[in-house]
Protein backbone atom coordinates (compact mmCIF):
# COMPACT_ATOMS: atom_id res chain seq x y z
CA UNK A 1 0.00 0.00 0.00
CA UNK A 2 1.31 3.44 -0.91
CA UNK A 3 -0.13 6.41 0.98
CA UNK A 4 -1.19 9.27 -1.24
CA UNK A 5 -0.33 12.89 -0.48
CA UNK A 6 -3.78 13.65 0.97
CA UNK A 7 -3.52 10.79 3.49
CA UNK A 8 -0.03 11.88 4.52
CA UNK A 9 -1.22 15.47 5.00
CA UNK A 10 -4.15 14.31 7.16
CA UNK A 11 -1.77 12.23 9.29
CA UNK A 12 0.56 15.23 9.70
CA UNK A 13 -2.40 17.34 10.79
CA UNK A 14 -3.52 14.66 13.26
CA UNK A 15 0.03 14.48 14.67
CA UNK A 16 -0.30 18.15 15.65
CA UNK A 17 -3.49 17.33 17.61
CA UNK A 18 -2.30 14.16 19.35
CA UNK A 19 1.07 12.39 19.02
CA UNK A 20 -0.46 8.90 19.02
CA UNK A 21 -3.28 7.40 16.98
CA UNK A 22 -5.29 4.23 16.55
CA UNK A 23 -6.07 3.64 12.89
CA UNK A 24 -9.07 1.38 12.41
CA UNK A 25 -9.57 -0.87 9.41
CA UNK A 26 -11.25 1.06 6.60
CA UNK A 27 -11.12 4.62 5.31
CA UNK A 28 -12.19 6.66 8.36
CA UNK A 29 -9.53 7.83 10.80
CA UNK A 30 -10.07 9.89 13.93
CA UNK A 31 -8.09 11.40 16.74
CA UNK A 32 -8.67 13.30 19.94
CA UNK A 33 -6.46 15.63 21.96
CA UNK A 34 -5.22 14.41 25.33
CA UNK A 35 -7.35 17.08 27.06
CA UNK A 36 -10.37 15.77 25.11
CA UNK A 37 -11.19 19.26 23.83
CA UNK A 38 -10.32 18.68 20.15
CA UNK A 39 -11.78 15.88 18.04
CA UNK A 40 -10.96 15.26 14.38
CA UNK A 41 -12.40 12.84 11.81
CA UNK A 42 -11.31 12.28 8.22
CA UNK A 43 -12.66 10.04 5.49
CA UNK A 44 -9.81 9.09 3.18
CA UNK A 45 -9.76 7.94 -0.42
CA UNK A 46 -7.64 4.98 0.70
CA UNK A 47 -8.56 2.13 3.03
CA UNK A 48 -6.29 0.66 5.68
CA UNK A 49 -6.38 -3.15 5.60
CA UNK A 50 -6.18 -3.66 9.39
CA UNK A 51 -6.46 -1.83 12.70
CA UNK A 52 -3.26 -0.79 14.48
CA UNK A 53 -1.87 1.76 16.93
CA UNK A 54 1.01 4.19 16.48
CA UNK A 55 2.57 5.63 19.62
CA UNK A 56 4.41 8.53 17.92
CA UNK A 57 2.81 9.57 14.65
CA UNK A 58 5.50 12.18 13.84
CA UNK A 59 8.17 9.51 14.23
CA UNK A 60 6.22 7.14 11.98
CA UNK A 61 5.96 9.83 9.28
CA UNK A 62 9.70 10.51 9.68
CA UNK A 63 10.50 6.82 9.15
CA UNK A 64 8.39 6.90 5.99
CA UNK A 65 10.50 9.84 4.76
CA UNK A 66 13.65 7.69 5.06
CA UNK A 67 12.74 5.87 1.86
CA UNK A 68 11.66 7.29 -1.46
CA UNK A 69 8.18 6.18 -2.48
CA UNK A 70 7.37 4.25 0.72
CA UNK A 71 5.40 1.03 0.32
CA UNK A 72 3.58 -0.27 3.43
CA UNK A 73 2.98 -3.96 4.08
CA UNK A 74 0.86 -4.62 7.17
CA UNK A 75 1.86 -7.65 9.25
CA UNK A 76 0.46 -8.98 12.55
CA UNK A 77 2.88 -7.12 14.86
CA UNK A 78 4.38 -4.42 12.63
CA UNK A 79 4.17 -2.54 9.37
CA UNK A 80 7.02 -3.04 6.93
CA UNK A 81 8.05 0.20 5.24
CA UNK A 82 10.14 -0.32 2.13
CA UNK A 83 11.12 1.56 -0.99
CA UNK A 84 9.49 0.71 -4.32
CA UNK A 85 12.28 -1.71 -5.30
CA UNK A 86 12.22 -3.47 -1.92
CA UNK A 87 15.95 -3.02 -1.26
CA UNK A 88 15.43 -0.92 1.89
CA UNK A 89 13.08 -2.21 4.59
CA UNK A 90 12.14 -0.92 8.05
CA UNK A 91 9.92 -2.71 10.59
CA UNK A 92 7.77 -0.27 12.57
CA UNK A 93 6.11 -2.11 15.45
CA UNK A 94 2.52 -1.34 16.42
CA UNK A 95 1.59 0.05 19.81
CA UNK A 96 -1.09 -1.43 22.06
CA UNK A 97 -4.31 0.49 21.24
CA UNK A 98 -5.39 0.34 24.91
CA UNK A 99 -2.43 2.57 25.84
CA UNK A 100 -3.34 5.27 23.31
CA UNK A 101 -5.85 8.12 23.50
CA UNK A 102 -8.64 7.53 21.02
CA UNK A 103 -12.27 8.67 20.68
CA UNK A 104 -14.62 6.01 21.98
CA UNK A 105 -17.89 7.46 20.63
CA UNK A 106 -18.83 9.24 17.46
CA UNK A 107 -19.67 12.91 17.65
CA UNK A 108 -23.15 13.71 16.36
CA UNK A 109 -23.73 17.29 15.28
Description:
- The structure is a single chain.
- With 109 residues, the protein is an alpha+beta fold.
- It is built from 2 helices and 7 strands.
- It has helices spanning 5-17, 57-64; strands at residues 21-23, 26-32, 39-48, 52-54, 71-74, 78-82, 89-93.
- Strands 5-6-7 form a 3-stranded antiparallel sheet, covered by helices on one side. A two-stranded antiparallel sheet has the order 1-4. Strands 2-3 form a two-stranded antiparallel ribbon.
- The mean pLDDT is 91.
Q: For the terminal residues, how far apart are their CA atoms?
A: 33 Å
* Mean pLDDT over all positions: 91
How many β-strand stretches? 7
Main sheet attributes: strand count, strand direction, barrel closure: 3 strands, antiparallel
- In the predicted model, the low-confidence regions spanning at least 5 consecutive residues are none
CA radius of gyration = 14 Å
- What is the count of DSSP helices, taking H or I runs of 4+ residues? 2
Secondary-structure element order, as H and E?
A: HEEEEHEEE
Overall spatial form = globular
Determine the strand fraction and express it as a percent band.
25-35%
| Oligomerization status of the protein chains | single chain
Summing up helix and strand content along with how strands pair, one would put the structural category as alpha+beta
In short:
With 109 residues, this protein is α+β, with helices and mostly antiparallel strands. It has helices at residues 5-17, 57-64; strands at residues 21-23, 26-32, 39-48, 52-54, 71-74, 78-82, 89-93.
Amino acid sequence: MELNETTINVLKNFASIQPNIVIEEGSVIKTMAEARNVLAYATLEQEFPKSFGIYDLSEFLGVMNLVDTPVLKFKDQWVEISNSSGTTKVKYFYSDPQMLTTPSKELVM
